[in-house]
Amino acid sequence: MSKNVEDILKAIEELPLQDRILVVEKVLKSLRKEGGTEEIKRAVRELLQDYRADRDLTSFTDLDMEDFYEPR
What is the rounded CA–CA span in Å between residue 58 and residue 48? Predict the structure, then answer.
């Protein structure tokens, strides 16, 4: 990792949460514009096997079909 990247990451870590989320959104948008979707698709395919094999990664999806009642 280059020094520039390390400096950028350190600066991002010091931002408030809302600003860090904005940075992530902007980076993802720029990746999509540059054709990064193929890399993202490849990463998704690679991670799909983990999600299929590791029950801990999907444990909360068991609750997807249950009714949700917000306490008041």
Answer: 11
If you count DSSP H runs as helices and E runs as strands, how many of each does the chain have, helices first? Answer: 3, 0
Closest among 23, 21, 22, 18 to 8, alpha carbons compared? 23
Long-range contacts at 30-37 (CB < 8 A, ≥ 24 apart): none
Q: Global pTM?
A: 0.45
Kindly give the confidence (pLDDT) of every residue in the chain, 72 residues in length, as a single tens digit, with 9 standing for 90 and above: 888 989 999 999 999 999 999 999 998 888 777 776 777 788 888 888 887 887 777 666 666 666 667 676
